[in-house]
Amino acid sequence: MGVFTNTNFTKTRPGKCLMVAFGAVIYSLGVTVFITPLHLYAGGVAGFSQLIRTIIVDLLKVPIPQSIDLAGILYGILNIPLIILAYRKISRAFFYRTLIAIIVTTVLMSFIQLQKPIIDDLLTSCIIGGIVSGAGVGIMLMYGGSGGGMDVVGMYLTQKSGDASVGKVALLFNTVLYTLCAILFDIPTAIYSVIYSAANSIATDRMHYQNIMVQVMIFTKKDGVADPIMTELGRGVTEWNGDGAYTKEDTHILVTLISKYEISKVSKIVRTLDPHAFITYTRVSRVDGHFIKKLQA
Fold first, then answer.
1. In angstroms, rounded to a whole number, what is the distance separating the alpha carbons of residues 80 and 4?
2. Does residue 196 share a domain with residue 251?
3. What percent of the chain has pLDDT over 90?
């Protein structure tokens, strides 16, 4: 456990890759342990893979070796165009970490096959499975990767639109997926799968703090604090001069908007230039205007 609790290690490239792989394991267990044994559908590309598997194996009666779950293989294949999108449109680091997650998930989904569910109650299993798998996705996103599938599309759209999020994109895709489930199979299967998907989306967005925006106000008597914030973070800064009511001294007041994961970077920049600066951080629920949502490096 020391490896995972060492925050300095998790900030390194190998550490981030390891945490993304760990998140992929958590996600895969949430699906294969809680959802698949109940013959429900996980949502996203994983759920679409399960749907195709059911059509091929159960409806078309195509013989498939029982030692391998075809859904896992299909998951890896369907992610190929999406991983290309990650490479071309998002970032190389995001691509490599997502590739690791896809490989881990493909292997686990292909070979973990439980005949009986751990929890027989459908509602309980859906909620727990959604929270566990959503937490896994959140871990992968927190450390600059993703589980592939709609996560890649969600991250791409998050950078393009201020209103987009990974959870919202997944929920929209799953609406179509579960409508197909209701048509092809039965209504209860679709309903319980929707419950799982909702729990998954909520857990993902709760953990994925790159979707959380923070307004920073800095009060400092030093000149030149705004420049490194703009240079190193690529964030705009508004600055004006004020008078300290108590000290009667001139004070520079700076305001900027950042993602939550950039807080430590801003604090380090400001403290290096002015150890006595006063800084406030306020969570922002919505932004209208130009604000770039960035991925971690």
1. 30
2. no
3. 44
